[in-house]
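Many introductory courses stop at the sequence. We go one step further.
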Amino acid sequence: PANTTPANSNDKYRVLVGTSILNLLNLGCRATDVTNAVTLSVITCDPVLDLEVVNLTASLVNSRTQLKWTAMGVDAAAVFHVEKSTDGNNFAEIGELPADAGTASRYVFTDPVSLQGRAWYRLRTGNTNGSKSYTRVLAISQGEKDLAFSTVVNPFSHVLLFDILSPKRASLEVTLLDAGGRPVKAATFEVQSGTNQLSFTNTGALTPGMYILRVEQEGKSIFRKVMKQ
């Protein structure tokens, strides 16, 4: 919907593919994934909280998920609520950490339950004034040991958000290439072992179309097609 409200939570969406608009209207001339649908979850954040969570990472330590993050602009009344999902849609709080007042503070939280298969995590921050906000969702799975994309927000507009699974602490060379293979954005990221949330900002001026996101680490490269709106 053009104007989304909390009443739209749990709405389901599915992509239909056809060679023309007329074919999209014809059941016999279009294709879709009949088993999977995207479920919309609308979160109301109330007043904006003056706080920024950066460098959120997830890694496995003795079969348990360990989350690490840095917070900027924290006030003494703020609290970090750690939420977990086993299906990517429904989240429940599994713990909380009080914030330290200051310009930049590091936090570590370990899930008390061993990871089974795949899980999704996010942070909900709030204070006594009723303000709250949510981070992006971070996914982690058992048995993932190679450099890989975990999540890419695609298509993108002003910011390209992507999560990278790294087998170890290292530097990543990330390049955004246009359709002709020419680099249009590049950066070096220092990542931890596990899942790392990264981004390319200020991408609004890029020409709409197809791009290639390339990630390199010690001679290994992975690629993902992304669409600029």
